[in-house]
Amino acid sequence: MRTWKGGLGVAAVAMLALCAPAAPAGAATDVYPAGGGAFGGDAEGWQVTDASCNAPAFCSASGGYRGDDGRPAGSLGADTNVSLNLLSLFKSTVTLQSPDFEVGAGGAATLHLERRFSAGSLVDLSPRLDYSVQLIDRTSGKRSSSISETVEDGAGWSGEDGAATVKAGHAYAISIRAVTTSSVAGTGLISGSTSARFDNVALSVDGADGRGGGASDGAPGAAWLAALAPATLAGPAQAKGTRLYVKARCPAKVGRACRLSVLGLLAKHRPATTRRTVKVASGKAKRLALKVRPRAKGSVAARKRLLFKVRVRAGRTHATAFKRLRLVRR
Predict the structure, then answer these.
(1) CA-wise closest residue to 168 among 226, 101, 99, 220
(2) 3-state secondary structure labels for all residues of the chain
(3) Which of 78, 98, 95 is nearest to 34 (CA)?
(4) Are the beta carbons of 210 and 224 closer than 8 angstroms?
(5) Which CATH number among 2.60.120.260, 3.40.30.10, 2.40.160.180, 3.40.630.30 corresponds to the domain 10-16+27-205?
(6) Which of 62, 121, 225, 302 has the greatest count of CB atoms below 10 A from its CB?
């Protein structure tokens, strides 16, 4: 099992401190653990606490720092390697855990990461990644789940956010559990590897003013933006032919333009439409056309309501929300 020690070097931290613009007065967002999860030069103290596969003679799991991959380069990896002669389904598990950190202020917080999954040379076995992110309260012993998602091959890099709550003075750690499974049994003639990547993993704790702010460009705090995110979608959604039309808006309270990414879903991890991303001015709205995926046409046609996922970005702050909208047909 491979482990790492330390975080960014003292010199690098000093440079970051000198270069980072000051946060607006009265607003502060603290980011944990130290280093901010960018993995620009090393693993920042993250460790592999589990790496296993259900068929150890033909399958192995590994985790580690990957300097050549990321957003930008530098990330944590959870890989599965399958050898020839595998005649069954495989399931591998890799758990990555951050160093412990103590939070100063308590209250609303946001866990953020960016992820990517590639089936690699095992694409014929139809592998998928199921990962979950937990916040571990070392002081109380409690665990709380913040993000969970199923990722198929070729999804590309994408950011995810989850709400969390922390208590001042408590010590915490972040845990990522990555489970890679196949849905087609091996034939004994296929070998290769899959790769999952995680980058920019960090917990942001908003300041006492409720808006946070740590971004020097005047963007709202992550938890504050998360509270506004559901209001960015207004129903009902209109179904016309193979397209769904959804009204997306940027609340005036955000105080700046929003970048909105909207996706229709049959279930939380089952896309029904293509994704559409637009920039919307503060206080304005746009009508988005989402194309229904061929395999989802029948299911969408039978629905009276449909679940939508919206990702909101304001400056350097991100938030994600799910909202079910009534479907009307024209």
Answers:
(1) 101
(2) CCCCCCCCCHHHHHHHHHHCCCCCCCCCCEEECCCCCCCCCCCCCCEEEEEEECCCCCEEEEEEEEEEEECCEEEEEEEEEECCCCCCCCEEEEEEECCCEECCCCEEEEEEEEEEEECHHHHHHCEEEEEEEEEEECCCCCEEEEEEEEECCCCCCEEEEEEEEECCCCEEEEEEEEEEEECCCCCCCCCEEEEEEEEEEEEEECCCCCCCCCCCCCCCCHHHHHHHHHHHEEEEEEEECCEEEEEEECCHHHCCCEEEEEEEEEECCEECECCEEEEECCCCEEEEEEEECHHHHHHHHHCCEEEEEEEEEECCEEEEEEEEEEEEEC
(3) 98
(4) yes
(5) 2.60.120.260
(6) 225
Radius of gyration of the chain (CA): 21
pLDDT of residue 286: 94
Band (296; pLDDT cuts 50, 70, 90): very high
> Residue 274, Cβ neighbours under 10 Å: how many?
15
Q: What percent of the chain has pLDDT over 70?
A: 85
Look up residue 219 and give its amino acid.
Answer: A
Which of the four pLDDT bands, split at 50, 70 and 90, describes residue 161? confident
pLDDT digit string (tens) for 82-115?
887 777 888 999 999 999 999 988 888 888 899 9
∠ CA 255-258-261, nearest 5°, is 155
> For the chain, which residues make up each domain, given as ranges?
10-16+27-205, 222-329
